[in-house]
Amino acid sequence: MVCCGWFRREKRTGHANGSFCSAISSITSRQAAVISIILTYQSKFNTYVPPLHIAEYYGILFLIVLGGVVMLFFILIPILLIIGITLTFLFMRNRVKTLPKLGGKLSPQTVHSSISQRAGDSLSLLIRCPTVSISEPDGDYIAFTALHRVLPYRYPHIFNTMTIETVNTHSLVLRWRGSIPNADPLLFCAHLDVVPAGEDWQEDPFGGNRSGGNIYGRGALDVKNILVCLLEAAESLIAEGFVPESDIYFAFGHDEEIGGQHGAGEIIKYFTQKNLRFAMVLDEGGFISAHRGQHIAEIGVAEKGIMNLNLRCRDKGGHASMPPQQSALGRLSEALSRLESCQPTPHLTPLTEDYFLTIAGMLTKRQRFALANRAVMSRQLMKALTVHPQYNALLRTTAVATMASSGQAHNVLPKVAEATVNVRLLTGMSSHEYLAFAQRLTADLDVEMTMDKMKEPGIVSEYHDTTFDKLANAVRDTFGPITVAPYLMVGSTDANYYEPLSNHVYRFGPFAVTAAQRATIHAADEYISEQSLGTAVLFYRTLMAQGW
To answer: How is 365-397 classified by DSSP, letter by letter?
Structure first.
């Protein structure tokens, strides 16, 4: 390195040749090789490197940023997504724990056998009066007359104490005066009529036969059982000298099974003329039923509406060997198929939301998870619930074809094809709104549509107050700490007539029934257990005896 430095200095002063040559002569060949290598590397080390342009700095910075973005996208973001999804799932699963818990087990009060036996005797007696609904005002009402004569014989205290009014010849209104004149009265309802017996009975449908602790016959569960238990409760309380605080009314219509127009429809006029308002109205409705091993008392606080949609398709007729592109019957069939398969969108109403929250413990894990996170899983919740017919009916307006007629011969094209679709209207949808929906759905089929027997969805009664709580407490006092849920009635009762007269119109039958037993309503071999009658009498006694 000293030699190289010396050489550079000599080269700058112009004396390098002579001095260098004289120096070389004294250097060995090995030393010369080393000097040559050093000079080569020295020339490389002293090469001039120009400064970077500003654009090149930005390019390098861009590559650094791009590399960071790539790393973030392929490494950090997936990690963050996994963490986020995990935390969200854990949060959603934790929300399931916030759903209401179920009540205790069904444990009815012990009933003295004499109470159950007397109620059973009374029910057998009333079943023997075949009070099948009659639509004609001038029809044969002899069975109703017979029932009217049996009641005073069976319940002398009631008919000696209460005021008895006959409404529209065949319906009854009873008034039990209370000790507080200005207190709002109570109203208990039942109906005297039953549906026709039908076929396939193993027992006499109007014999009131008893077998295996059960009582068989038309009306045993719908609803001469309620009629009997109401009267048994009142009869026993009067016999004990009890006087209620407020007036108690009993309304027994005679045509509930065919719409109630001439029974409850006339009784409401009677009450309106007297300017009556009721603290509570209690009619038939939900039962105590088992779901997935748990019992729940379903108290109806509203009813779905009901209407019949009549469809008619017309054509020119003719021989079946030369049919048109689509016959009247074909168009009608297509219309019926659309109405059944394309029903209104299911959704939760405030009432049905409260119902499913109350019974959440009876639902499947999938249903509970979707219910707890319904704000973001509404579609999944509807899909999980609507596969079950009993839940589907609570979540949407339903429509099903029930009657159809067309044609006179196998080889003749029908000129007219007709059908009836029974529609149950969910709260929030009117009959005219459904008619418009059906017309849009079948607009290309040239179908005539008319409506009849329309009843709009009922008013939702209060169920977040003390009146409902008193009813629920009476259920628990009688049947144990079971779950009590506000319920939407999918069927129709006389209670809807009394909605203008009270904010608390409830529908509940105090009987624990199985699915098989419920299936006998309007079917063969309808029955009820004698013991359950005694328990229901205790329930009604509790309601009548407490202050409202």
So the answer is: HHHHHHHHTTTT-HHHHHHHHHTSHHHHHHHS-
